[in-house]
Amino acid sequence: MANEEQKKLDSFLEKVDGITELIQQMNYGSSEEQEAAKNKADDLLAIKSKEKDRKQIEEEAKYGKIGFDKAVVNKNAFENEQVGPPLTDPSMGQDAMMQAIAKDAQERGARRAKAHKDATLIKEKGNAEFKEGNYEKAVDHYTEALSILKDYSALWTNRAQAHLKLGNYQEALHDCEWALRVSDRCIKAYAHQGKAYLGLKEYDKARESYQQVLKCDPKKESLVNDYLAEVDLAQTSEEDERSANELFEGGDTAVKGLVEVIEKLKKPGQLPLYYSGGMRILAKAIVSHNDRTLFRTNGGLDLVKDHKVISSLFRINPQSQTKEGRDVCWALMELYTNVCTENDENIRQLLRFPDFTSCIQGFLELKYKNKYRFLREATIKFLVTVSQSDIGQSVIISKFDIPRLLASVLPVASLGGVIAANTMGLLNNLAIHKKFKVQIRNNVEDKFLPSFEALMCDTSSAHLGLLPTCITTITNLTNDSVIRQKMANRTESWDACVKVMERHGPKCAEKMNQEIVFTMLGLIINLTLETTEPCLAAAPKLTRCCCPLVTSDVIRIQARAFGALNKLLQKSEEASRIACDCGLHKTVLSNAKKGDINDEDLANCIKILTSCSKIGNTGHDIIYDGKGLGLILRLMKHRDETVVGNAALCLTNCLDVKGVCKRLTETDIIKDLLVLARDAKNPTCQQNCAILLGKLATKDTLHLEKLRELHGIEILHDCMKYIK
Question: I need a surface site. Which of 145, 299, 533, 548 has the fewest CB within 10 A?
Fold first, then answer.
């Protein structure tokens, strides 16, 4: 016992010695030792607080509670930290010493709170200067705030962003490193670090920084992909410029001639005709990727910004210009269309010039009269070219007022001809992009859908060639759930779909009609994802149009018809009845029995059979006339549980057919269904299999006996939770 007490005493003395040493360091050590001692004291206080037992709490209640507040201090101590006077007298008792330490922690916490408040106020001043484009002043404010509080990550990232705007990439890297010392999962720090490395042309390091963003937050995948695309573009552009310059330095005659034309075009003080002619010569001379790169590196893109004559004519309202002035703008659009073809860097640099997009928008809003026609056509062709790349789509969407852009180009689509085709191509390219859909959600019903519905209902031959692109554009838009819901609620949209199918479905053997029907079937599949009153009303008419298409010789038409019918029959019992009257179930059975049918078509076929099996005597036709029982039983063993679940539901619908239950007693269906009802991962599949088990057991005692023999009553009872 004495040894045990001695151990406790030694342990206590060891702790006392440690605390005494800590006090000495806090009072008389160097500034670094004092700061380290304070941090250690905070840790001891935290441990002490956690180890308090009920007796200690009662004693504190009796003699007075000592509060311990642990100040959160970054372990990476910053320089210039103020050191206070000695905290305690070395001779004071342990409790008094702990009270002094706690008091110091509270005081330092209060000082830190004040410092954070003061630094935040200065940061806001920096933010205001940044928004105004005064980046140097913003840097000064952030620096002042950092002198007050250094472990404030937002100050480091904000100053890094300001340095990026000033092109101070090394300084930005320095600030990002400090931000990451404060918080090693600071997404903004990694993003700014990537931009700094990109500015320094250290592409691999930029990619590594952007990948760190994804590690911190996997939901930022889209943003990171945009960053990585920017890195790829910059690296590709640098390589292109190096290749083009090597050709020029190597004395390539064609290349030198191209550069000479660019230099001649820069010549000031000439008549508009000189410049329009020169730009058309240049447009014909540019035929390769290297040519387009050389055009950029030799100042060709700057014509619209720096050339006194060309830039001034470009910015004047065409309605106030002479014919020669408008011709310069027309020639410039043709030239820029050429140089932006398959050249993302040219697109990116050109559309960032001040006033460029506003001037383009002005050209689009010109009345379509003879004297403006060619300029407007050239402008739309330019935008179509730009919109053919992901970078171009992003630039257009970010730089243009999209509702205003749509208001100016949609009326052109009704004119027919090349300009209408180009307009539709532009809209289709933009409709792929998520941000475009988001921007048009609010006015899609007023500005967008009526124009497209009118085009679909237009029976003139002039618009026939536009229909596939028109329908594809709408289909792309309906990938957005908000737009899809709005369109599915429009009777006008469904009526337009019916008219297109009634007009072109019977003639789908012709190539143009094939394209129209194929794209329309895709739109129907998308729209039937929503259940609306207009959808339910249109389903029977569309079913009647689609049924003949399942026997089409064109495989892709046939496959999409199965997909569309699957969706339509689920929406309307009347549609299912029409399908049965057309003998659709027999055609579907024939197709489903083919050995080479793919999984998607097979899934559609069994769903169609399930819808048809609810109608009249169709179950008898499927089981006996169509000899479909064997097919359904095979599908019950399919690897896709969605197919299995629909096969079970189809078989449930066919159980009333005389003799079916008896035939099933000769199979292992009860055993198979029990396994599926218990182990299937798809809840709908489990539900359908459980329902089929229950139906079989009630319709034939042999199935019930088999169920009891396999102890399936318990499993079936447990599966009741899956039955809604």
Answer: 533
CB neighbour class for 498 (10 Å; exposed up to 12, middle 13-18, buried from 19)? buried
Side chain identity at residue 371, one-letter code: K
Q: Specify whether the CB–CB gap between 338 and 346 falls below 8 A.
A: no
Which runs of consecutive H residues, i.e. helices, occur in 547-598?
555-571, 573-581, 584-592
Q: Tell me, what's the pLDDT at 158?
A: 94
What 3-state class would DSSP assign to 26?
Answer: helix
How many whole angstroms separate alpha carbon 91 and alpha carbon 487?
Answer: 83
Q: Distance (Å, rounded) from C-alpha 587 to C-alpha 566?
A: 13
Of 258 and 46, the one with more pLDDT: 258
Give mean pLDDT, residues 639-648: 91
Alpha-helical runs (H) found in 387-448: 390-399, 402-413, 417-431, 434-440
pLDDT at residue 52 in the model: 45
- Show the tokens assigned to 104: 């110091």
Q: By C-alpha distance, which of 671, 653, 667, 660 is closest to 716?
A: 671
Which has the closest alpha carbon to 179: 165, 190, 189? 189
- Alpha-carbon dihedral sign for residues 561, 563, 564, 568: positive
> What is d(CA 443, CA 644) in angstroms, rounded to the nearest whole number?
43
What's the DSSP call for residue 318?
G
- Comparing 101-110, 142-151, 219-228, 253-262, which segment has the lowest mean pLDDT? 101-110
Amino acid at site 356: F
Higher-confidence residue of 107 and 423: namely 423
**Cα–Cα nearest to 317, from 359, 373, 351:** 359
**At a CB cut-off of 8 Å and minimum separation 6, what does 139 contact?**
126, 159, 162, 163, 166
Q: What pTM was estimated for this model as a whole?
A: 0.71
CA distance 524 to 600: 17
Phi-psi bin for 517: left (phi > 0), alpha (psi -120 to 50), beta? alpha
Count of C-beta atoms within a 10 Å radius of residue 412: 20
CB 310 within 8 A of CB 275: yes
Contact assessment for residue 100 and residue 23, using Cβ atoms and an 8 Å cutoff: no
Which range (92-106, 316-330, 506-520, 616-630) has the least confidence? 92-106
Q: Tell me, what's the pLDDT at 628?
A: 83
Burial 644-681 (b: 16+ CB within 10 A, else e): bbbbbbbbbbbbebeebbeebeeeebbebbbebbbebe
Q: Which residues contact 465 (CB under 8 A, 6 or more apart)?
A: 421, 512
How many CA atoms within 13 Å lie on the side-chain side of 59? 6
Nearest to 68 by CA among 92, 87, 89, 50: 50
CA distance 159 to 136: 10
Confidence (pLDDT) at 710: 84
Report how far residue 715's alpha carbon sits from residue 676's, in angstroms, rounded to the nearest whole number.
Answer: 11
Q: Which residues of 331-341 are buried (b: 16+ CB within 10 A; e: fewer)?
A: bbbbbbbbbbb
Q: How many residues are recorded in the chain?
A: 724
